[in-house]
Amino acid sequence: MGSKTPGNDNYQRGDSQSSSAAIGNGEVRGRNNSQDGDGCMGSNGGGEDDDGEGDDDNNDVAPPTLTLTGASSADASKSKKKKRKRHGKKNKTSILKQSSPPRVPLHDLFPSGSYPTGELLGYDASSETRNTAKTKEVRIDGLRRTNESAFLDNYRKAAEIHRQARHWVQQSVKPGQTLTEIAVEVEDSVRALLDNQGLEPGQSLQAGMGFPTGLSLNNVVAHYTPNPGQKDIVLQHSDVMKVDFGVHINGWIVDSAFTMAFDPEYDNLLAAVKAATNAGIKTAGIDVRISDVSAAIQETMESYEVEIKGRMYPVKAVRSLCAHDIKQYRIHGGKSIPFVKNSDQTKMEEGEVFAIETFGTTGRAYLKDDSGIYGYGLDPGAPARVSLPLASANRVYKTIKDNFGGIVFCRRYLERLGVERYLAGLNSLVSNGILEAYQPLMDVPGSYSAQFEHTILLRESQKEVVSRGDDY
Ligand SMILES: [Co+2]
């Protein structure tokens, strides 16, 4: 999920003035904090290739064999695909055993417990040197090392589940399906691969969906998910769909998204956003300033012009959403990376996790809240119990604590737990400031938007694009 552009607190750190000056205020137009828009990263599409380098120098295993489908995001070059497949050989057998839709738990496919490494990229020379001092400290600390290895295992497993679940989406989703069918299938797949249905209290805290599955069409840029009881939307051949979902294990969330379209008319829009996200990934690193990542993103995004239905549009970088860091059980860790120039001197730091996402649009790029609710999120530091006058608020609060903690959830996630008559309770928690509600975000009608997003780990000597796949 993308974070809403901070006008305020999320941007904290002294730099806020600068960042908001550059990007912030004006553009945000009244929106407050950063909401993430989970973005995804685009891969090699559109002739963009940053990832190529990483692969080559690191023997890193490309995730098994997803072939991207008919979706236009699949356009990536065939030759590259082949090359990667070879790298991924050792996992090949495992993927062959995965069912469609995916239902074979990941631990059965990888009995050794060792999951594919993401794409490893080096830092540029200057940042590596800067790093040395900190690095030593880390080496001494054995406990931290053990934690680091559990952290990596959790992240790599969650990323592989993301790849396998999205592979199904790319292969199987077709116009005529409803958004509810698609969302439920994504979620059923993720839970099956985790081998955790999350129906008992506490289970979803161990592993589950990282946030509500986002399926945002056309001018709805981010944060739309189907809700129970609402009129369902049927996917059309002419739609551009952002598919944004997360997988978490022990609170470590893989946040990754892509865009699919059935009409090749949108290919260049998708390519622009993929390229922008890849530019952000390439620039990101330990000690790198947020302003530098933003500038790289904007420059790439705005170098594209696209023709849709006979009209030319510049691709605009969306102003109201940001990429963001991720903390345990917390999708928006507090750092935000706008997609346009700013003077935020905040640096990325070793050990941090970032969701590098970008959104491009043919519309105005300043988004408005759409009606309805996407999801709700508790502050992870929220107290164990609350006592409000409304009994149902206290009840639903306990359910949230027991099942989601700080993980953003949606009404469908509550209903599958058998919770009923929760709306008044949720509203009360929101109005008391205990729960934050996220709304869908839209650009002007008739516009089209795309998103790509990857989760990256800023490890000691390399950055790991943990959610990278053959698809994007
Ligand atoms: Co995100």
From TrEMBL:
Its EC number is 3.4.11.18. Residues 79-92 have a biased composition (Basic residues). A divalent metal cation 2 binds at residues 255, 324, 357, 453. Coiled coil: none annotated. Keywords: Aminopeptidase, Cytoplasm, Hydrolase, Metal-binding, Protease. It is found in: Cytoplasm. GO terms for molecular function: initiator methionyl aminopeptidase activity; metal ion binding; metalloaminopeptidase activity. It catalyses: Release of N-terminal amino acids, preferentially methionine, from peptides and arylamides. Substrate binds at residues 223, 332. A divalent metal cation 1 binds at residues 244, 255, 453. One of its GO terms (cellular component) is cytoplasm. InterPro entries: Creatinase/aminopeptidase-like, Met_Aminopeptidase_Type2, Pept_M24, Pept_M24_MAP, Pept_M24A_MAP2, Pept_M24A_MAP2_BS, WH-like_DNA-bd_sf, WH_DNA-bd_sf. It is an enzyme of class 3 (hydrolase). NCBIfam families: met_pdase_II (TIGR00501). Belongs to the peptidase M24A family. Methionine aminopeptidase eukaryotic type 2 subfamily. PANTHER family: METHIONINE AMINOPEPTIDASE 2, METHIONINE AMINOPEPTIDASE 2-2. Cotranslationally removes the N-terminal methionine from nascent proteins. The N-terminal methionine is often cleaved when the second residue in the primary sequence is small and uncharged (Met-Ala-, Cys, Gly, Pro, Ser, Thr, or Val). This is Methionine aminopeptidase 2.
